[in-house]
Amino acid sequence: MSDSKNKPRPSLGARIFRILSGYEIAVTCLSLLFLLTFFGTIEQKWFGLWATIHKYFDIESLYVIPTLGNGKPIFFPLPGAYWVIVVLGINMLCGAIIRARKGWKKFGVLLSHCSILFMLVAGAVSSVSKQEGHMRVLQGEKSDYAQKLFTHDIEIFKYGENGDREAPAIVRSEHIKGLGPDDQINATFEKFDFTLQVDSYLPVSALAGASPSNPAPNGIEVVDGFYIQEVEKDIKEEERNMPGCYVTVKDKDGNPIQRLVLWAGNPYPVSFTHEGARYGVTYLMEVWPMPFVVDLHKTLGEYHPGTRIPRWFQSNITKVDGSSREDYEIVMNEPARHDGYTLYQAGYTAAAEGETPSSTFAIVNNPSDKWPEYALYASTVGLLIHFLVMLGRFAGSSRPKKSPTIESSAS
After folding, report:
1. What percent of the chain shows pLDDT beyond 90?
2. In angstroms, what is the C-alpha Rg of the chain?
3. Average pLDDT of the chain to the nearest whole number
4. pTM for this structure?
5. Does residue 208 belong to any structural domain of this protein?
6. In a domain? residue 259
7. How would residue 161 be classed by pLDDT, with cut points 50, 70 and 90?
8. Are residues 38 and 54 in the same domain?
9. Of 225, 255, 288, at which residue does a domain stop?
10. Hey, which of 7, 92, 106, 367 would disulfide with 96, CB 3.0 to 4.6 Å?
11. For 67-193, where are the E strands, in sequence order?
12. Helix (H, G, I), strand (E, B), or coil: what is residue 376?
């Protein structure tokens, strides 16, 4: 009887581990990543880099449908790249590390596999922990804060006797973004004796004016001659998509004081009066304090002839961190780095006559910013070690062997 018939059947856990660590999953994941990268590159032509990256690689993209510029599908639905990479990471952990043969001769290969897995982990950490914002600085001035591009807060502040703004109370974006058109929240503040009711939130909206000759559409509320309405999302430039909402200011007894319409694209405060004091309300990008100060000395730039397409931007800055001062020259694709913060040259505004030029910096705080670089170094070392081991084995096997000598005895 064959021994294979007496061999015990693997347990369910062993069979699942065999599937997760198999070459089949690795080949499937790599093939899907090739297709996602290929179709994402095609789509970038119509929808722009930012929108394409978020469509194909965002954690919220469970699946994607590759399309042409007119929205016509060009391929069947594919799983989102983020989740393909998660599966590939599990496959590498099970197959290339846990299941792989161990020993000093395999150290180089194991180090390379661990480095690639670490690189995948770096991408996952970046996607969930990275913070992004813009800082605009006039030449000759300083700034110690940026504004987060896709996070908008409502700020309520009181005007002082000299018209200066006092420290604001804030309704954070995370409390507003989850609202539907028919939902509302009520915000209370320790420093104010009134509340704010936020309702009719629209994630992508436009501010419009109403007049007898141009009335608002039916069913849309008009406040002081203005209203917000839902508009089509700009898929090429995400930063153009502005949320809007309506706000009711109520006294401590719940009686309405003022009805306001807020739109994130309006940089000016909407004001109201309560008990003889004047207040302002803004709906703007979240202020992001920096742990350093950027002092812009000089900004330079050029556009391609006849276009507004950037050809070359440069900013000469001093980064001030307490008593520490460091000079940087920031050029396109040559950022400045500081304790996990990276400053990219994102924009340049030339000065008209009598005006001051300015630079716009894209600021990214990514805890895993340098991890892929470290993983690349470690992977290179691992492959070099494996190459030297294999070279040594080959050299050893290529040496000519001595023929055995046979001693003959006299008969």
Report:
1. 39
2. 31
3. 86
4. 0.65
5. yes
6. yes
7. confident
8. yes
9. 288
10. 92
11. 78-79, 131-138, 142-158, 169-171, 184-188
12. helix
Report how many domains make up the chain.
3
Q: Assess whether 37 and 66 both reside in one domain.
A: yes
Same domain, 61 and 186: no
Q: In sequence order, what are the beta bridge partners of 10?
A: none
Q: In the structure encoding, which two tokens stand for residue 192, read together?
A: 């104010």
CA distance 91 to 17: 9
Q: What is the mean pLDDT of residues 392-408?
A: 69
**Which of 39-48, 79-88, 366-375 is predicted least confidently?**
39-48
The DSSP output letter for 189 is -
Q: Do 152 and 284 lie in a common domain?
A: yes
pLDDT at 411 over 50: no
Choice between 3 and 220, residue whose per-residue pLDDT is larger: 220
Do 125 and 168 lie in one domain? The reply is no
Paired residues of 302 in beta bridges: 312
In the predicted structure, residue 371 carries a pLDDT above the cut 60 = yes
Report, as an integer, the average pLDDT of 138-166: 90
Share of the chain above pLDDT 70, in %: 91
Residue 400, phi then psi, degrees to nearest 5: -65, 135
The candidate with the shortest Cα–Cα distance to 91, out of 4, 144, 28, is 28
Report yes or no on 411 lying in a domain. Answer: no
**Residue-wise DSSP of 31-80:** HHHHHHHHHHHHHHHHH-HHHHHHHHH-TT-SEE--B-TTS-B-S--EE-
The last residue of a domain, from among 263, 288, 313: 288
Q: Write phi, then psi, for 307 (nearest 5 degrees).
A: -135, 175
Statement to judge: residues 44 and 63 lie in one domain: yes
Q: Which residues contact 169 (CB under 8 A, 6 or more apart)?
A: 155, 156, 157, 189, 190, 191, 192
The answer to whether residue 331 sits within a structural domain is yes
CA distance 177 to 199: 11
Domain range holding 140? 131-144+291-365
My answer on whether 171 and 253 are in the same domain is yes
* Residues whose CB falls within 8 Å of the CB of residue 314, separated by 6 or more in sequence, listed in order: 299, 300, 301, 329, 330, 331, 332, 345
* Cβ burial 183-213 (10 Å sphere, 16+ → b, else e): eeeebeeeebebbbbbbbbbbebebbebeee
